[in-house]
């Protein structure tokens, strides 16, 4: 691939470092799309041997490229994303692939995005499960004060359906649910105490 094209792709990818996600880190700052992508790739590599039937290279490519469109659109949380948002992201991906990549690579990634959307192959199903569970892990690591109210329930259910097809993924999702429950039991009472103390200070 020629130098100019490589640098153009790198320039677009840099936007993923700049675009924040809804999730927060353990240090109390918003994470970037690029940070989510990196750890999803690591996640897939760590658990890859549990799926000997899976094409590991294809799975890693799905993890690497799945949020490419967010270089243009930014991140929209799952509970806010509408069909119009999904269509906008598809158009962004279509434009990026046609403008950035040589024909052979463009064709490969177009097929990959079709496969991810269909979510029928083992690789696509594993990818979708891991993608959602990485978000659950990130929320478990973030201060619970960064959660919005609906996430108290979402943490217990998000990704369960996607993980349900494989025993390893089911077990992993159940472990994350336990972690979420323990976090809420530990931290929610503390939040309540802080709010009560704040109200008392205001009343004085």
From TrEMBL:
Alphabetized SUPFAM superfamilies for the sequence: HD-domain/PDEase-like (SSF109604)
Metal-binding is among the record's keywords: yes
Keywords per UniProt: Hydrolase, Metal-binding
Reactions catalysed, as given in the entry: a 2'-deoxyribonucleoside 5'-phosphate + H2O = a 2'-deoxyribonucleoside + phosphate
Keyword Membrane applies: no
Location of region: Disordered: 176-204
Residue ranges of every copy of the HD/PDEase domain listed in the record: 29-145
InterPro entries (UniProt xref): HD/PDEase_dom, HD_domain, YfbR/HDDC2
Cofactor(s) required for function per UniProt: Co(2+); Mn(2+)
A GO MF term: 5'-deoxynucleotidase activity
EC number: 3.1.3.89
Subunit structure: Homodimer.
UniProt name for this protein: 5'-deoxynucleotidase
């Amino acid at each position: 691939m020629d130098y100019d094209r490589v640098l153009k792709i790198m320039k677009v990818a840099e936007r993923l470092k700049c675009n924040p996600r809804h999730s927060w880190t353990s240090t109390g700052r918003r994470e970037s799309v690029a940070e989510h992508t990196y750890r999803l790739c690591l996640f897939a590599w760590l658990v890859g041997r549990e799926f000997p039937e899976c094409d590991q290279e294809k799975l890693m490519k799905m993890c690497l490229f799945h949020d490419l469109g967010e270089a243009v659109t930014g991140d929209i949380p799952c509970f806010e994303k509408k069909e119009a948002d999904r269509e906008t992201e598809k158009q962004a991906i279509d434009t990026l692939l046609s403008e950035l990549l040589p024909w052979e690579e463009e064709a490969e990634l177009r097929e990959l995005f079709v496969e991810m959307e269909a979510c029928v192959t083992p690789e696509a199903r594993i990818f979708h499960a891991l993608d959602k569970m990485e978000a659950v892990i990130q929320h478990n690591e973030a201060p619970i004060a960064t959660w919005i109210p609906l996430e108290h329930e979402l943490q217990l259910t998000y990704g369960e359906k996607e993980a349900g097809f494989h025993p390893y993924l089911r077990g992993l999702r159940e472990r994350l649910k336990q972690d979420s429950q323990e976090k809420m039991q530990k931290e929610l009472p503390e939040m309540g105490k802080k709010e009560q103390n704040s109200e008392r200070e205001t009343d004085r």
